[in-house]
Amino acid sequence: MTAGDNEKLLRRIRKLMALGTRNNNAYEAARAVRLAQVLMQRHNLSPEDVALGDVQEAVSYQIYSDAISIPGWLNALAAVVCMATGCRCWFSWYHSASRTGQARRRRSLHFYGLNERPEVGLYVFTVLSRQLRDATDIHMHSAYRLKRLKVQTKRNRADQFREGWVVGVWNVLESFEPSEKESAVLRNWLTQRCGNQALSELNVREARNCRGDTKARVSGWMAGRQAQLNQGLNGQASQLKALSLIGGKDDE
What is the pTM of this model? Predict the structure, then answer.
């Protein structure tokens, strides 16, 4: 059986199991479950195999940092997206070519979870990443354009602003934690996905302290609370609402 045939079989079994649990007709429900069990026995499939088939993966190649040490704000943003969508994620690398044809190592972020959640996670991460980039540019231009600061100080304040911005976003998103059963399925899926290539621990670089860092972080927090997730992107806005994501407003 090819991979495509196996996916079709798993899809059919999942539909039968769903029909068996949602059908008000007891006879039809029992018949659907029995047919699903027959197919599972015939093809030597366990309930765990069927559950693993529900796990999907979505990859973001629009990461605004290719540093070996992941910036703290980027790691926090990925964590917030996972918290809000019931996904899990890991950072990886991929190769691309520059305009001059030279090979470059670029960062990627892999979201994985049940059903449509990874696609929703990718949507949320893409939207928030763009808004964070724009908010940082506006803040750095308006707050420090006429001030003579060291380059490193500007970089530190930008990182402080970004970390504060992510905290502000976290304040206006509802937490969505998968059940223990779902978490076990995700762990099993990740083990199979990675095989012998175990994931290494992240090297995270937190924002450095500097003169004016508190003001920059507070400004980021206030801007992050204004983040908007209701703009459509690849048709994911409706799925976002289905996961009960909410936007917040300043209390002031």
Answer: 0.74
